[in-house]
Amino acid sequence: MVQVRELEPVLCQAGQTSRVVWTSSSNARRSAFNLDDVQHRRGTEPYASSKYASDLLSLALNTHNNSQGLYSSVICPGLVLTNLTYGILPSFFWTLIMPIMYLVSWFYSLVFFYSMIVLTLFVSTLL
Questions:
Q1: Which one, of 67, 52, 21, 36, lies nearest residue 115 by Cα?
Q2: 24 by DSSP, 3-state: which?
Q3: Cβ-based neighbours of 72, under 8 Å, separated by 6 or more
Q4: Any idea which residues carry the catalytic annotation?
Q5: How far apart are the first and last CA of the chain?
Q6: What is the DSSP string of 36-90?
Q7: Contact at 8 Å (CB) between 121 and 55?
Q8: How many CB atoms lie within 10 A of CB 91?
Q9: Residue 33 in contact with residue 45, Cβ under 8 Å?
């Protein structure tokens, strides 16, 4: 957010449209985030908290800067298999479990979509 604020004069130039894209997660949860503890020093779920903070930042940027041509979006890449995930369990297990994981991912995408609507309403009440 600091970087976006520093680049605001460049991103919000007249006659120009700019976009900022944040990477979030279906693990982002409001219950893990506390506005009085934005550094998450007293919490137990720093990942979920930081992803929810990214969602809030995107909404705040849109609320304050859309009229100046700055648009913010959040993406959630979903389940990603990496060398780390293959190192945890054998590859045949991932082959068997992937259809189930994709269904779970699809379900969480729906939950994420509806939570973003609730989040938008929440942020609009704060402003």
A1: 52
A2: coil
A3: 19, 20, 21, 22, 57, 58, 59, 61, 62, 65
A4: 47
A5: 18
A6: GGTT-SS-S-HHHHHHHHHHHHHHHHHHHHGGGTEEEEEE-------HHHHHHS-
A7: no
A8: 10
A9: no
Nearest to 81 by CA among 90, 94, 93, 92: 94
Burial 61-81 (b: 16+ CB within 10 A, else e): bbeebeeeebbbebebeeeee
Radius of gyration of the chain, Cα coordinates, nearest whole angstrom:
17
CA distance linking residue 98 with residue 92, whole number of Å: 10
User: Smallest Cα–Cα separation from 70: which of 34, 2, 17?
Assistant: 17
Tokens of 48: 């979920």
Q: How would you write the pLDDT of the chain (127 residues) with one tens digit per residue?
A: 788 888 888 888 888 999 999 988 878 888 888 888 878 888 888 888 889 999 999 999 999 899 999 999 998 876 666 776 677 777 788 788 878 877 877 787 777 777 777 777 777 777 6
